[in-house]
C-alpha cells in the first residue's frame, strides 16, 4: 500500500494542475476493490485522508490473511 501511496504522491507533484476532487477520485480508482469498498465507507474528503484509511484497511487485511494462513496450516498438520 505504501508503494502505491508514494507513487501517487510523486505523480501529483509532477502534475500540479490536478484538483483536490480529481486527485481523490484517481486515488480511489487505483485501489484494490476490497480496500476501495472500505475506504469509500469513510467518505474521505481528500486523497490524503483516503490514503490513511487505505493503509488501515490494508494492514487489517494482511493481519487477517496471515492469521487465516497460520490457522489453516496448523489445522492441516493435525489431520
Instruction: Flag low-confidence runs.
Output: 65-79
Report the span from N to C terminus.
Answer: 36 Å
Mean pLDDT: 84
* Range of helix content: over 70%
SSE string, helices as H and strands as E:
HHHH
By DSSP, the count of extended strands is 0
Q: Which shape, going by the Cα principal axes?
A: globular
* Biggest pleated sheet: none
Structural class: mainly alpha
Description:
The protein has 79 residues and is an all-alpha fold. The protein has helices at residues 2-14, 20-29, 33-41, 47-77. α3 (33-41) packs across α4. The longest helix has 31 residues, at 47-77. Mean pLDDT is 84; it is low at 65-79.
Summarize the structure.
With 79 residues, the protein is mostly helical. It has helices spanning 2-14, 20-29, 33-41, 47-77.
Descriptive terms for the model:
79 residues, mainly alpha, disordered C terminus
Topology, element by element:
Elements: H1 2-14, H2 20-29, H3 33-41, H4 47-77
Amino acid at each position: 500500500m505504501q508503494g502505491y501511496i508514494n507513487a501517487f504522491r510523486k505523480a501529483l507533484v509532477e502534475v500540479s494542475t490536478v484538483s483536490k476532487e480529481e486527485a481523490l477520485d484517481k486515488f480511489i480508482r487505483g485501489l484494490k476493490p476490497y480496500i476501495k469498498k472500505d475506504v469509500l465507507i469513510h467518505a474521505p474528503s481528500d486523497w490524503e485522508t483516503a490514503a490513511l484509511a487505505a493503509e488501515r484497511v490494508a494492514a487489517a487485511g494482511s493481519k487477517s490473511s496471515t492469521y487465516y494462513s497460520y490457522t489453516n496450516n496448523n489445522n492441516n498438520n493435525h489431520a
